[in-house]
Structure formats: C-alpha cells, structure tokens
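Entry — protein

Goal — fold tokens:
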Amino acid sequence: MKMKFFQTICRQLRSSKGFSVESASPVAFSTSSYSCGRKKKVNPYEEVDQEKYSNLVQSVLSSRGLAHTPESLLEEDALLYGPVIRHKPPKQDEDTRMPQNWFPIFNPERNDKSNASDPSVPLKIPLQRNLIPSVTRVLQQTMTKHQAFWLERWKQRMILELGEDGFKEYTSNIFLQGKQFHEALESILSPQETLKERDENLLKSGYIESVQHILKDVSGVRALESAVQHETLNYIGLLDCVAEYQGKLCVIDWKTSEKPKPLLRNTFDNPLQVVAYMGAVNHDTKYSFQVQCGLIVVAYKDGSPAHPHFMDEELCSQYWAKWLLRLEEYTEKKKNQNIQKPE
C-alpha cells in the first residue's frame, strides 16, 4: 500500500511543470525498525548560504528564455561575487625615491631678519635667454607618461571639436588672456604703475574680479615678473610675484582656468614650479630675502571666487624633493641625447 502511494507521488511530480525526477535505484520499505548503524552521508549543498543565493536562483528561473541586459548581468555578478570595490592605484615610485644630489630649498645663511626690509619698489629683473634650462622646460621635458597621455587626449578632442585652425586660435586666445591678466595684476600690485585706459579695461575683467578677495590679503610686494637663477642647480625662471599673503612671505603664482580647481592636486605641476622659484630666490644673490611659503591662485573668467592654494614650509619641502628628481631626470635625458648625437 505504501509502495503504491509513493509511486503515485512520483508520477505527479513528473507531470508537474518545471520539475524532473531522475530514476533512482528501487527503495525498499520495511515495517521493521529502521537500521541506524549506517552513517548518514552529508549533503554539501546544505552548507550553502541559501538566503544569499535565493534571489539569484529565483532570477535565473524566472528569466528563462529572456535576453540578459548589462544591468541584469551586473546584478547577478553582485550577488555572486559581491559589490565592486575600486582600489586606489598604487603609489608611484617617485613618492619613495630620493634625489641623488640633495640641495636645500632654504638658505641657512639668510634668516627671518632679511625679510624685515620692505622695498618701496618691487624688483623686476629681466630674464636673460641663454643655454640654461628654464623651470617650464624642465617640467615639460620630464612630464610623466600619464600626464602626457591625458594632455594629448585633451588636445585631440579639442582639435576634433574646433579643427586645427580653431584649436590654434583657441590656444592663442588663452595665452593672450593670461598675459593680460598678469599685466593687470602688475598694475594693481606695483605702487608706481600709472593706469592707462587699456589697463582700466583689463581691471574690469572676470579674472580680476575673481581674485579680489585674495588681493585683500596681499601686501609688501617684493618682486613682480622678475627673473631668478639657481647657479648651483643650473636653472632659471620668471616668477609672477613675491609678496606677503596673510603675513607670510610667499612666491605667488597666478593661474587662469576654465574649470574649477578647488584642490592643490588639481593644479598638476604648478606646486613644483612654485618651489623651484622659491629655491632659486633663496640662493640668488640678486635677492636679499628668504621665501618660506608658496601660494597658487587659480582665477576664473566668469568672475567666480578664485581658489587659493597655500603651501607651508613642510609642504614646500616635500615638493622640493620632487622637483629635484625632475631636474635630475632632465639632466640625465640631456646627457643621453648628447651621447647619441653623431659627431
């Protein structure tokens, strides 16, 4: 009687939609007591976290015959492997390397007393073009592959949108706007500059409006558009400004941007440029003072408030080490190029 009942259940299960019962060896039932001497075999599927995979099983069964979409595949991957965790890229070797030939950014022969003098006329030393590499050239020639890739990608995208001639005109306008911005700042910060009609128009630009809240904290201007040279490390540069910002003597670098740059890392190699000028000023005999801080000001054409990025002594020292590495890399590249040149 029990055997017939079991066979009836099996037939019902076979006829049920979505279920199949595999043939198995005949099972014999006995009214006698069940033998417990045989060890029960452990089913490995009992250890599976049913709650975790129930949603996945249900989605697979309910979507038979339906095409998968990227969204559904991502959902199934999340159920199988968990959410995607984006790891930070490993730090570059540059963070751990140290310059082979160390040279201090600060001049031990100069002290804070040299900063007490406040000249009425800021220094404006003209830049002498010679064979000594400039700070800008060193940074351009030692650009990382990652930086070069994104710069080239941006260039190609702009050419695709504007065309070759349009891109040249665009870059020319950007350069002209930056030049006019610096000329206007020079008129504002130089006490003996007389404003011309052209300068008055420049003062109404969005860039100048953008830096108004920064200029309120700038005083004691020591140098404007002035050349520097590091005779020991053999490089030159043309700094924008040396002045006090909130009571700290800084090398100030004025930048323009079409995109917001609220963080220092958004300024790319600008911190290296600032510390390169700082080190040169502190060891250039034409300058009698010592600069211990840096400031990068990013101004915007629409007049929105500029972002000031202040660099204290500790931060400047960190970037100075990176600048020395870039300078050594440039020197090594030039040495290899001279070796490869045929006589």
Observations:
- Residues 52 and 79 are 7 Å apart (CA to CA).
